């Protein structure tokens, strides 16, 4: 029976054998396209482009619901087989799920009725949650039920954002998109709390594990969910000292985790320092929001982009670089050029957060550095993702 299952798996084209392959590949490509289009529009290079709700609404929607959800899907569809001991989604079901994501990206550029565009966008996250939820339910894997809950909350935020687009209500659209972005932060804190210390332990050859702090992990996750819920509900749209205290608590929790996971040897391992620096941006994002709510800085945009570019983009790039190596049967040593990709991503975050307020050059530099970082990933990882594993395993 095992031989038959193996032969069936090997008959599937490599790109469709596990979720990380099509979604990491397409997510990285979309990261380049989405930021390239946004930068081109900002500088007047696409005068005839008018997506539903305007280009800003498209940008707000597509970064969490297009780019981030692709990578999240790829990671979770791959990780769930380790969590449950069951095969991950592959073959035709994986193709169909991927096509739902792809159709939503293409739909923005077609002259569709508003209702059809909204339906196309709203389909992917509930389907992904259903696929993962059924796999977890079969083995009663309760530990990971919160992951499915976050996906459903993201789907609700997306529906809120899409209603804002359909009704020309910028406030609703913004609340939904930003609420989803902070839900991505919650997911990053949940998954990051598992993989960053584990990867660090393995990467530096540490003999003793980091001391477990389950209360810290769940408090950080709960705090992140509160921030996302408040944002989606429109609470804290105006500076509030009470909300500032919540963001300050989140900052301290993230900082405590970073200190707990630190080992000076990480700075010798690009796959590790890229993860730790990206997580540090999550702490800086909550600190920036705390300062804004306390009235100490004038805009929240820098904090939002510290989250979107530094934390989300940084953790995504670092994670897909490592996961792709492990799941294609390769040693956990990335191509040398990926060091430049990690550096460029940090430059993109620094430019967007610090330089953009001073000069439009900062925005250009951030966009170019982001695009270059993901181009380097595609240059070296695309062949790994569409070819079979080097060790002959059918995954």
TrEMBL record:
State which residue ranges cross the membrane. Answer: 23-45, 65-84, 91-108, 114-133, 145-168, 180-204, 241-260, 272-294, 306-325, 337-355, 361-382
InterPro entries named among the record's database cross-references: NnrS
Keywords attached to this Swiss-Prot or TrEMBL record, sorted alphabetically, are: Membrane, Transmembrane, Transmembrane helix
Is Ion transport found in the keyword set? no
**A Pfam family this chain is assigned to:** NnrS
Top-level taxon of origin = Bacteria
| Species whose genome carries this gene | Metapseudomonas boanensis
By what name is this protein known?
NnrS family protein
Keyword NAD, does the record have it? Answer: no
């Amino acid at each position: 029976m095992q031989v038959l299952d193996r032969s069936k798996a090997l008959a599937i084209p490599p790109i469709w054998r596990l979720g990380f392959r099509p979604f990491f590949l397409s997510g990285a490509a979309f990261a380049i396209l989405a930021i390239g289009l946004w930068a081109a529009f900002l500088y007047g290079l696409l005068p005839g482009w008018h997506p539903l709700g305007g280009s800003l609404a498209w940008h707000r929607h597509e970064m969490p619901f297009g780019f981030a959800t692709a990578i999240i899907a790829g990671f979770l569809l791959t990780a769930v087989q380790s969590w449950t001991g069951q095969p991950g989604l592959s073959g035709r079901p994986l193709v169909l799920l991927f096509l739902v994501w792809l159709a939503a990206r293409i739909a923005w550029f077609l002259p569709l009725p508003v209702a059809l565009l909204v339906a196309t966008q709203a389909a992917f996250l509930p389907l992904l949650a259903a696929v993962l939820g059924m796999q977890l339910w079969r083995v009663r894997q309760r530990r990971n039920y919160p992951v499915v809950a976050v996906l459903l909350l993201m789907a609700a935020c997306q529906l809120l954002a899409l209603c804002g687009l359909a009704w020309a209500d910028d406030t609703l659209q913004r609340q939904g998109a930003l609420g989803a972005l902070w839900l991505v932060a919650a997911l990053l804190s949940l998954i990051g709390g598992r993989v960053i210390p584990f990867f660090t332990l393995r990467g530096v050859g540490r003999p003793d594990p980091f001391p477990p702090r389950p209360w810290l992990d769940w408090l950080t996750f709960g705090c992140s969910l509160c921030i996302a819920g408040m944002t989606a509900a429109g609470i804290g749209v105006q500076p509030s000292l009470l909300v500032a205290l919540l963001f300050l608590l989140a900052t301290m929790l993230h900082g405590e985790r970073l200190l707990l996971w630190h080992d000076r040897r990480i700075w010798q391992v690009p796959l590790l320092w890229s993860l730790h620096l990206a997580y540090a941006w999550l702490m800086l994002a909550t600190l920036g929001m705390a300062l804004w709510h306390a009235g100490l800085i004038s805009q929240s945009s820098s904090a939002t982009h510290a989250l979107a570019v530094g934390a989300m983009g940084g953790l995504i790039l670092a994670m897909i670089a490592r996961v792709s190596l492990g799941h294609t049967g390769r040693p956990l040593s990335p191509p040398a050029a990926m060091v430049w990709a990690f550096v460029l991503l940090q430059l993109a975050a620094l430019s967007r957060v610090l330089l953009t307020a001073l000069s439009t050059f900062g925005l250009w530099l951030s966009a170019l550095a982001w695009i270059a970082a993901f181009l380097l990933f595609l240059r070296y990882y695309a062949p790994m993702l569409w070819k079979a594993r080097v060790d002959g395993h059918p995954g």
